[in-house]
User: Which sequence fits this backbone?
């Protein structure tokens, strides 16, 4: 059987990739995609922990489903925001979106 | 059937409410509503009546239905209804007469500004009367009694723009209240002594009470009846009540409400007969007989067509009281019922005449026989019934009273017979003055009334003609057995002994009635009065003046009771002015003086203290102010400046770029993780 640490490693790699995307990309959609990657990395962790540590209780699965739901909602709102910004400013480059500056 | 009896007064009550709240604006609808409601009551009452006819022994064991209304201390007041033969007969009579008069009112009140209101009032009145009849306790009876009193007031003063009508309303209300208060005292006495207001219980317990208490209760109840039934000395309101519309006079002041007093005595008869020898009935008989005679003498000298009938009503009510007073309950009730028909008829007839000629004064009328034939014939039937000519209804009932009186007290019988003579005479006078000869006022062009008015006349005339046959003495040869052996007595008065047939009394009363009619014809019929001629009775001189002025009873009351009350009022006013106001003013002045003293004290002592305290506070606050300015403000300003400088520096992190924030977050999390790891 594949040990738990393998799953955790995959999840960590995936999380780091997502984090890098979210921090380094200038395209707002790419940032959203990075966030999705991080969320899914967490899902892998949740399911893996459930499977290996408390297989009798379905807590991990339930959490994962919650996360997926929240991720969907977050993606929808994020995309809607991006669309609205694009209509106003003709760009989705986050470097240029700095209206909240001091 | 009997369990639905309570609905009978409810129908008119509903129509009253509907008219007042909804249909007041639609005159015809209101009238139809009132008539429809009373028609339903009529049908139901007839059903109850015929059901009651078929029940054996209803008099001994009346149908009762009661529920507890509200508790009072140890006992609880019950309210409910009962049906015995007396109730059933009264229900049939009241609803029939009411129905006829409601129909008649449509014609009589036609075009009146307050047409709807009139029907609302008479509906409410019908509620009161029917409620009174079915009541099984003194409380409901008294409530209905007062509803009728109120309606009587409202309807007498119906044309309240006329000061006479408004005053007559007040007079009726106040005069009857004298009796009502005494009746209420009687109720309280009975309740106090027997612990119940229900007839059945009272009658049962009244036999165990001390005789003087029962006597007092009887007198008090009778006083109520005296007020309501306009017996001497409280009769003065009834003639003035004729200021109201004529249907009202017929309904309330002839046929039903005034008979309520008689009904009350009949209903509470066991209280009157509870003491050995029936001393409670003595005043009933004496006042009844006296009123019967006294009122009929006044009726001789009245020229107002309705006032003649009003005094006649008082006199006939006196007859009923007489009958009760000599123990003839059945005779009294029988006369009550026949009287309701023929007196209602006479009043409606007089209303039809007034409608036709436009005046109440009989001296202005004359020769109406040809102009108003239907009114004439029906009026004649009513007049013969009242005068006591066989076979009309009034003959049988009056004869039964006289026969009963003859057996018990011949003085009373003699007074009654004299009154019967006068009755026949004044009715002959009225009929000859109104219907015969030539019109004395040529400007009046009389016309017959519309069918809606004459139809009730015909129905009531049938009653006035035929109803008496129900009460023909059973032992009268030929007629008695032929007419069913006095069905009225067998129905209402099983418990009482029937008055034996007395040919002597009967022949005397027939001849007296005929003599009265003959005298009337002699004076007024043989040579009918022409315009400008004076009344032949004026030859009586001072006696005529006395009768014309109704024995000056009103004047005597004005000089004594009314003046007395006004004097008392003045006295109390003076007391108020002099003593009470003086005291109040004294108190006021004392208060002012005290206030002045107080003011001085305030100015010099309290104010001085307050000012001192104020100065101390000012000094203290000056000190405080210095502390504030330098210490507190310095601190506050210092904090503000520090926050300002910090804000200027720290805001530089707010770059507005999302990823900078994220990076900051990452670095912080990593630092935290490092701290946690190497702790």
Assistant:
């Amino acid at each position: 059987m594949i040990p738990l640490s393998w799953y955790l490693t995959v999840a960590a790699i995936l999380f780091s990739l997502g984090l890098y995307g979210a921090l380094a990309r200038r395209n707002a959609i790419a940032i959203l995609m990075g966030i999705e990657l991080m969320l899914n990395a967490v899902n892998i962790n949740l399911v893996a922990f459930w499977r290996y540590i408390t297989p009798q209780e379905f807590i991990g699965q339930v959490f994962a489903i919650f996360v997926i739901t929240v991720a969907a909602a977050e993606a929808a709102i994020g995309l809607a925001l991006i669309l609205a910004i694009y209509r106003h400013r003709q760009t989705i480059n986050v470097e240029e979106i700095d209206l909240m500056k001091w | 059937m009997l369990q639905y009896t309570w609905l009978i007064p409810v129908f008119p009550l509903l129509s009253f409410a509907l008219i007042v709240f909804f249909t007041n604006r639609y005159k015809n609808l209101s009238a139809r509503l009132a008539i429809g409601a009373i028609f339903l009551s009529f049908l139901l009452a007839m059903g109850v009546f015929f059901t009651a006819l078929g029940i054996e022994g209803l008099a001994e064991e009346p149908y009762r239905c009661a529920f507890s209304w509200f508790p009072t201390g140890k006992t609880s007041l019950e309210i409910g209804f009962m049906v015995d033969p007396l109730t059933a007969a009264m229900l049939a009579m009241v609803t029939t007469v009411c129905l006829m008069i409601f129909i008649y009112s449509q014609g009589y009140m036609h075009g009146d500004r307050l047409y709807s209101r009139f029907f609302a009032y008479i509906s409410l009145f019908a509620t009161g009367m029917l409620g009174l009849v079915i009541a099984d306790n003194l409380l409901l009876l008294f409530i209905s009694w007062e509803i009728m009193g109120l309606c009587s007031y409202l309807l007498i003063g119906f044309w309240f723009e006329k000061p006479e009508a408004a005053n007559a309303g007040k007079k009726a209300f106040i005069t009857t209240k004298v009796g009502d208060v005494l009746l209420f005292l009687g109720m309280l006495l009975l309740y106090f002594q027997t612990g119940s207001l229900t007839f059945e219980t009272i009658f049962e317990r009244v036999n165990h009470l001390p005789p003087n208490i029962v006597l007092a209760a009887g007198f008090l109840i009778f006083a109520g009846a005296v007020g309501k039934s306009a017996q001497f000395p409280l009769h003065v309101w009834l003639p003035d009540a004729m200021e109201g519309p004529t249907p009202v006079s017929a309904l309330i002041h002839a046929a039903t409400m005034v008979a309520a007093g008689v009904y009350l005595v009949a209903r509470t008869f066991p209280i009157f007969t509870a003491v050995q020898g029936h001393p409670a009935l003595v005043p009933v008989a004496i006042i009844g007989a006296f009123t019967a005679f006294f009122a009929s003498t006044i009726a001789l000298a009245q020229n107002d067509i309705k006032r003649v009938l009003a005094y006649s009503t008082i006199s006939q009510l006196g007859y009923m009281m007489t009958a009760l007073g000599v123990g003839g309950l059945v005779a009294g009730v029988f006369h009550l019922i026949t009287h309701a028909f023929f007196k209602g008829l006479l009043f409606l007839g007089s209303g039809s005449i007034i409608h036709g000629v436009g005046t109440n004064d009989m001296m202005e009328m004359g020769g109406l026989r040809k102009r108003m034939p239907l009114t004439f014939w029906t009026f004649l039937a009513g007049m013969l019934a009242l005068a006591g000519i066989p076979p009309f209804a009034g003959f049988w009932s009056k004869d039964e009273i006289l026969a009963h009186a003859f057996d018990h007290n011949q003085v009373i019988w003699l007074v009654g017979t004299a009154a019967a003579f006068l009755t026949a005479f004044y009715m002959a006078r009225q009929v000859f003055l109104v219907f015969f000869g030539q019109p004395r006022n040529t400007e009046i062009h009389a016309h017959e009334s519309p069918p809606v008015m004459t139809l009730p006349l015909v129905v009531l005339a049938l009653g006035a003609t035929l109803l008496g046959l129900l009460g023909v003495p059973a032992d009268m040869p030929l007629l008695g057995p032929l007419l069913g052996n006095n069905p009225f007595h067998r129905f209402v008065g099983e418990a009482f002994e029937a008055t034996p047939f007395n040919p002597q009394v009967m022949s005397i009363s027939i001849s007296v009635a005929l003599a009265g009619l003959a005298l009337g014809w002699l004076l007024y019929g043989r040579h009918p009065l022409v315009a400008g001629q004076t009344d032949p009775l004026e030859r009586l001189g001072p006696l005529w003046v006395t009768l014309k002025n109704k024995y000056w009873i009103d004047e005597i009351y004005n000089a004594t009771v009314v003046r007395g009350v006004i004097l008392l009022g003045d006295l109390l006013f003076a007391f108020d002015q002099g003593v009470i106001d003086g005291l109040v003013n004294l108190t006021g002045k004392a208060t002012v003086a005290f206030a002045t003293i107080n003011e001085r004290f305030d100015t010099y002592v309290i104010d001085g203290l307050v000012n001192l305290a104020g100065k101390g506070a000012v000094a203290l606050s000056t000190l405080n102010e210095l502390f504030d300015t330098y210490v507190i403000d310095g601190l506050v300003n210092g904090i503000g400046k520090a926050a300002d400088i910090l804000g200027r520096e720290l805001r530089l992190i707010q770059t507005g770029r999302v990823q900078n924030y994220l990076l900051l977050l990452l670095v912080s999390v990593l630092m935290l993780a490092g701290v946690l790891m190497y702790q």
